[in-house]
Amino acid sequence: MAGFETLLDRIVDNMPGKDVADPDRVDEYCPPDLPKTTFQAAVRGLFGRCPSCGKGRMFPRLLKPVEICPTCGQDWTAQQADDFPAYVAIIMTGHILAPVIIFMINETDFSMWTNLAIIIILGLILLGSLLQPAKGAIIAMQWWMGLHGFEKPPRPPLAGTSDNVQDHR
Ligand SMILES: [Zn+2]
User: Rounded distance, CA 93 to CA 22, Å?
Assistant: First the structure.
């Protein structure tokens, strides 16, 4: 597989437009403001911002992340969130809705159909609004931990300590 990946890299490197993601060129106009912790990276993704710089928009469309961050040039094509954002969104929707459902059944006099309609509409709204933040946070963590095709980003030095730098480049 290593040979195949090298070949792929070579093809991708020679594609037009690829030079935008060249780290040497990117540093010329916008040094990436890297997050300091996993949490910070995840929060940036959660709010739909590029985890690398915190400025560029991560999702120009609802669930499709940008290929290259327009601000810092970080390449996001290596992300493989797959179904995981959906699992996270479903689990969270269930936990948020469960007490609401219990309250509605026990404390209100709505008919079964009214209850069902409210529960389905609430569930769809919750699920829809949780999917993109979940996907952003998951992609951010994949990138920060160097999973899949991501190259693990260098860790900024911790305040006051110069020997805690873990540069993996
Ligand atoms: Zn960026």
Answer: 40
30: pLDDT strictly greater than 80? no
Q: How far is the CA of 56 from the centre of ligand 1 (A)?
A: 5
Assess if residue 82 is contained within a domain: yes
Residue 83 in any domain: the answer is yes
163 lies in a domain?
no
pTM of the model: 0.70
- What CA–CA distance (Å, rounded) separates 149 from 68? 14
- Report CA(44)–ligand 1 centroid distance (Å): 10
Name residue 12's amino acid.
V
DSSP 74: -
Q: Specify the higher pLDDT residue, 167 or 33.
A: 33
Total domains in the chain come to 1
Look up residue 120 and give its amino acid.
I
Residue 17, in any domain of the structure = no
